[in-house]
Write a structure and sequence with these properties.
five-stranded mixed barrel; 15 helices; 19 strands; 504 residues; eight-stranded mixed sheet; single chain
């Protein structure tokens, strides 16, 4: 914010603070405890439209049609148009905007000039009165009674441009939600998507559970955790990096279908596709496998398209490319994609040095100390995944990448797993879950190496009591909603993304 803007804001705040002091000196409460709100902008409109249907056709079209039902609404003042003895005001509530018509003579003597006209943009008011339709056709409240319920001491952003600085949008999301209707709609869509995810899974007899956010061992994913200290136990704990291992304990305990929508935390980078705190959906179903999870995610996304979006075609905001989620989705093996992209049918029999030399020709950066499978994975992540725009199930991932999945029966170098890639990124990995405690221990020990303190012994003990065969799946909710809304940045789908603290 420029120095001139800061000075202007300070001047406006001083004026508003003076109005606040004047109200209090007159014994008025500028911050009421409540307002009896009978309607929102949406339900008020619906009430008037229902009323109009009861009128004879000629009367309903008459400019002097009788007033409709009385409503009590409340919201934040967005526009204020004074016209001598009357004013038109628009207020914003949770459902949208509704217009108010305020006449001087409809209010007690002196109130219009001494109180109402001194309201500011951003003030929150409550009003009562009947509904009518103006000559321009807008359903409006004819105000007979009003009250200031919360005085705004700071001005709103300039009404025609709203917030234009991206950092201010994320730091002061509340202002973005007031001034930017597209932003409001995105977060309402997010809420509806979460609601429909729950409905779909509940309809499939899944049980929603809650598991701990503080873990003694950071397991279930290969990620750097946030570390905190548990004073009562005098030991370090970790904010969870995944939901997986506790949900599998639920399978051991006889909950055959479970899911959790929860926050997870990874102490890693921030980018347009990554935030250190994000929302995960993890789903586990006994007596199925990764194929069952394919059916589940396909049905879930179709359900959201039908019940929230109203379309299977998603247009990307940055370039207009249309992603088609309808019909069946492509399925292809990881090895096939590698061979096609490198143009080398013998890639998997090449030496590590030959693969490193090939990546130099491809122009991709690879750690020269990387293991063989890591080189191949770099090829996949940098050359293949970004081009998987339409929905694609990538199957038979190398076993070194995922220690918690079952080995493929016909090729024990790969896993019974898929990664659903859409819009150039992984949306949902899913496994046939490893339920052999001996193999599971071996795979986890290979993953943690000498860092034995990172081995979740409690999970392995649970597995030794017997876990049924199962399919499991994780879905990054923020990435999914970016996809479904066509947004370009994960920060646009997280209400309050991680930011560096402002300097005082």
């Amino acid at each position: 914010m420029s120095e001139a803007q800061t000075d202007n804001t300070s001047d406006l705040m001083a004026v508003r603070r003076k109005k606040l002091d004047d109200l209090r000196e007159r014994g008025m409460d500028p911050f009421r405890a409540n307002w009896d709100q009978t309607h929102t902008s949406k339900t008020a409109l619906e009430a008037y439209e229902s009323f109009e249907k009861t009128l004879p056709p000629a009367e309903s079209e008459d400019a002097h049609a009788p007033d409709g039902p009385e409503v009590s609404v409340a919201g934040r003042i967005l526009t204020f148009r004074l016209m001598g003895k009357a004013s038109f005001v628009k207020i914003l509530d949770r459902d949208g905007v509704i217009q108010l018509y305020v006449q001087r003579d409809a209010l007690p003597e002196g109130v219009y000039n001494e109180d109402f006209k001194k309201l500011d943009l951003g003030d929150i008011i409550g009003v009562r009165g009947p509904l009518f339709r103006t000559k321009t056709g807008e359903v409006t409240v004819r105000v007979q009674n009003y009250a200031l319920v919360s005085k705004a001491l700071r001005p709103l952003p300039e009404k025609f441009h709203g917030l234009t600085d991206s950092e201010q949008i994320y730091r002061q999301r509340y202002l973005d939600l007031i001034t930017n209707q597209d932003s409001r709609q995105r977060f309402l869509t997010r809420s509806k998507i979460l609601q429909e995810i729950r409905k779909y899974l509940w309809g499939k007899e899944f049980v929603e559970v809650e598991t701990p956010s503080l873990h003694a061992v950071a397991g279930g994913a290969a990620a750097r955790p946030f570390i905190t200290h548990f004073n009562a136990l005098d030991c370090d704990f970790y904010l969870r990096i995944a939901l997986e291992l506790h949900l599998k304990r639920m399978l051991v305990g006889g909950f055959d279908r479970v899911f959790e929508l929860g926050r997870v935390f990874r102490n890693e980078g921030i980018s347009r596709r990554h935030n250190p705190e994000f929302t995960m959906l993890e789903v586990y179903q006994a007596y199925t496998d990764h194929r069952g999870m394919m059916t589940l995610i396909h049905g879930l996304l179709h359900h959201i398209c039908e019940n929230v979006l109203g379309t299977y075609q998603i247009e990307r905001a940055d370039d207009g490319v249309v992603i088609d989620l309808s019909g069946d989705w492509r399925e292809v093996e990881y090895s096939q994609l590698i061979k096609e992209t490198t143009g080398d049918a013998d890639w998997f029999t090449r030496s590590r040095e030959e693969k490193l030399a090939a990546t130099q020709k491809f122009g991709i950066e690879v750690n020269p100390e990387a293991a063989d499978y890591e080189i191949t994975q770099d090829v996949y992540e940098k050359m293949i995944e970004p081009k998987l725009i339409q929905p694609t199930f990538v199957t038979r991932i190398p076993k070194e990448l995922i220690p918690l999945a079952k080995l493929n029966a016909s090729n024990d170098g790969t896993l019974d797993i898929f990664e659903l890639a859409i819009n150039g990124q992984e949306i949902a990995p899913a496994y046939s879950e490893q339920n052999d405690p001996i193999i599971q221990r071996q795979m986890l020990e290979e993953q943690v190496g000498e860092e034995r303190q990172n081995l979740d012994e409690d999970f392995l003990v649970a597995l030794e009591h017997g876990m049924p065969p199962a399919g499991g799946m994780g879905v990054g909710i923020d990435r999914l909603i970016i996809l479904l809304t066509g947004a370009a940045n994960i920060r646009d789908m997280i209400l309050f993304p991680a930011l560096r603290p402002e300097k005082s």
